[in-house]
Amino acid sequence: MRASRACRRAACFGHVSPEALAGGPIGKLRDNDIIEIAVDRLTLTGSVNFIGTAEHPLTPEEGARELAVRQTHPDLHAHDFLPDDTRLWAALQSVSGGTWKGCIYDTDKIIEVINAGKKALGI
């Protein structure tokens, strides 16, 4: 999740990339999980942390370890009518560093993967 904009009172979080489908932590969340969003107004840095449930609170570090071993939510799947440009964007992200880099592509890595695929297919 990235902060998409901020106003005078609070940051506005609203953009979630498709990292859930790539096995990212957001795809491992369940109903009743508690998420902590912390923003330092002086340094303009922030974090989004899974901190357990009301019955089983966790530190951010414990939450990260739990999400690392959790399976992706069983109901999670790509929409049948996902637009081609979205699918292409996800593929480009997948071969150039993943969703963790946002919309920053590694052009050289993408070209390297395409060329390797062409070679493997004899194109």
From TrEMBL:
Keyword match Lyase: yes
Gene Ontology MF term list: hydro-lyase activity
UniProt feature coiled coil, ranges: none
E.C. number(s) listed in UniProt: 4.-.-.-
Residues of the Dihydroxy-acid/6-phosphogluconate dehydratase C-terminal domain: 4-49
Keyword field contains Nucleotide-binding: no
Gene3D superfamilies per record: IlvD/EDD C-terminal domain-like
Record keywords: Lyase
GO cellular component, one term: cytosol
Stated name of the protein: Phage dehydratase
Organism: Enterobacter cancerogenus
Designated gene of the protein: yjhG_1
